[in-house]
Amino acid sequence: MSYTAPDTATLDSILDTMRFDAAGLVAAIAQQHDTGEVLMIAWMNREALRETLQTGRVCYYSRSRKGLWRKGETSGQTQTLIEARIDCDADAVLLLVDQIGVACHTGRRSCFYRAATPEGLIELTKPEIDPAQLYHTHA
Fold first, then answer.
1. Annotated binding residue at 59?
2. Annotation-wise, does 88 bind a ligand?
3. Which of 26, 52, 97, 136 reaches 20 to 30 Å from 13, CA-CA?
């Protein structure tokens, strides 16, 4: 299954449909296309969504860095777009992706690795890779 980018007019129409918030953002949920595993949530501005839909390589907006964040540009843990789905209110996007490696900066496959239980939070999965290895830093 491979992604095909829309033509420019169609892409502009899709972007014009989106209801970006006051900060110019929409929520973006990444889900593994073949397993349904929810990997992460991040934010996209118009430029990030445009780049993602044009290139098929997932790009987010980093609120902390105040700029585009191309998933995997530092860690090598990339997301390739299979399909993008817009929710009913056009204020969120579901990205069906092919995740290479881990999605979470903690070194786990998914950012959703803790469950809330009557006893408190429990850890469902351990890191698959040391974050220092991912980002070439020293712990």
1. no
2. yes
3. 97
